[in-house]
Write a structure and sequence with these properties.
With 328 residues, the chain is α+β, with helices and mostly antiparallel strands. It has twelve helices and twelve strands. Helix 11 packs antiparallel against helix 12. The longest helix is centred in the last third of the chain and has 20 residues. The radius of gyration is 20 Å and the shape is globular. It binds flavin-adenine dinucleotide (FAD) and iron/sulfur cluster (SF4). The site of flavin-adenine dinucleotide (FAD) has 33 residues, from strand 2, helix 2, helix 6, helix 7 and strand 8.
């Protein structure tokens, strides 16, 4: 049985206290924990070995949900995925986000796991999500304890895969995130939260807390999220397709298609989305858009199923998502 390493658990009562605690401990030695559904298993495998954890569960401010679909919704980062997938305004105004949250793992993990933790979830790789002994037997890799990349030995970077279900959907919906840190609060577009690097995959400072996700007005957006995985439950995405279309009658006015699990960050496909603007969703157009979205999809041989298959499925899933939105 894998056991957690020893650590000190701090339980702040306010956001200010949480930010101060993490700053005092030093972001190299301390980490934030929300539901713990990603971090604790990773700690058991010694992928992270923080001396201190600063728990966010007592912070009421992180569990607030304000606004509405007409004016925009602000979702506290500490709300559980179960809540996000079932909340009335979410299901009515942002159904694809509710779907994405509801497709994460299992009911038990969605009851504990938070949307903030889902945005910050660690990148994944077959050579990394293994026990310490397994990783030691293959001489480790540069994401933890080693020097080289075992997927692409000549590469100077890590290609571990962004594996959040909600991040690509929030990206397509044009959401922002609110961050709190020692220097105060700031709001950034969700696209600015991520870096294309399997190790430093977040652009936020290690001591910054994601406090909320800000959704723009639901307006006349039609959206959907499709997820590819081996089993219908538990498994992380090995491809996510998040589509949002702003419609004027049957004509597309704005479009965003973001792919999950094909790179170290969610991958937007602006060239494919641009083909939709000013057009009606016809079968021929859908095929052309799916072809264009296929090109930037570049999965590597480091998650489940084969990477050529996952790339091939990008075309299939984008076409399927658009047909669903067109009612075809
Ligand atoms: C078997 C299994 C299957 C899974 N399947 C999926 C899946 O299908 N899809 C998917 O997306 N995820 C999956 N997960 C991962 C995880 O359960 C979810 O991503 C969950 O939403 C993580 O939220 P959490 O609150 O538990 O995060 P935690 O484990 O508490 O934290 C995860 C990371 O986020 C950081 N963090 C947490 N909250 C904040 C915050 N407010 N501000 C800044 N940093 C923060 C932590 O420091 C840590 O680095 C799976 C996990 C397991 C064990
Ligand atoms: S992509 Fe390479 S460096 Fe990154 S986790 Fe996998 S093997 Fe390690």
């Amino acid at each position: 049985m894998l056991r957690l390493p020893p650590f000190t658990y701090l339980s702040p009562r306010s956001l200010t206290e949480a930010v101060t605690m993490i700053a005092n401990q030093g972001p190299q030695d301390a980490m934030l924990v929300a539901g713990g559904t990603d971090l604790y298993p990773n700690m058991k495998r010694r992928q992270f070995e923080p001396k201190t954890l600063v728990g966010l569960r007592q912070l009421r401010a992180l569990r607030e949900l304000t606004g509405n679909a007409r004016d925009g919704l602000t979702i506290g980062a500490g709300l559980t995925l179960t809540h996000v997938s079932q909340q009335r305004d979410m299901v009515a105004g942002y159904p694809a986000l509710a779907t994405a949250a509801g497709l994460v793992s299992t009911p038990q993990l969605r009851n504990m796991g938070t949307i903030g933790g889902n945005l910050c979830v660690d990148t994944r790789c077959n050579y990394y999500n293994q026990s310490y002994e397994w990783r030691k037997a293959v001489n480790f890799c540069m994401k933890k304890d080693g020097d080289i990349c075992l997927v692409a030995p000549g590469s100077s970077r890590c290609w571990a895969v962004s594996s959040s279900d909600t991040a690509p959907m929030l990206w397509s919906l044009g959401a922002s995130v609110r961050l709190a840190g020692p220097k105060g609060e700031r709001v950034i577009p969700i696209s600015a939260l991520y870096r294309d690097d399997g190790i430093q995959y977040l652009s936020k400072q290690p001591g910054e807390v994601v406090t909320a996700i800000v959704l723009p007005p639901a307006d006349v957006w039609r959206s959907t999220y499709l997820k590819l995985r081996r089993r219908g439950s538990i498994d992380f995405p090995i491809l996510g397709v998040a589509v949002a279309l702003r419609m004027d009658g049957e004509t597309v006015r704005e479009a965003a298609i973001t792919l999950g699990a094909v790179a170290s960050q969610p991958r937007p496909t602006p060239a494919a989305a641009a083909l939709l603007v000013g057009q009606r969703l016809t079968p021929d157009l859908i095929d052309s858009v799916a072809d264009a979205a296929f090109k930037p999809s570049k999965p590597l041989d480091n998650t489940d199923l084969t990477h050529p298959y996952r790339k091939k499925m990008t075309r299939v899933f984008v076409a399927r998502a658009l047909r669903q939105l067109a009612g075809l």
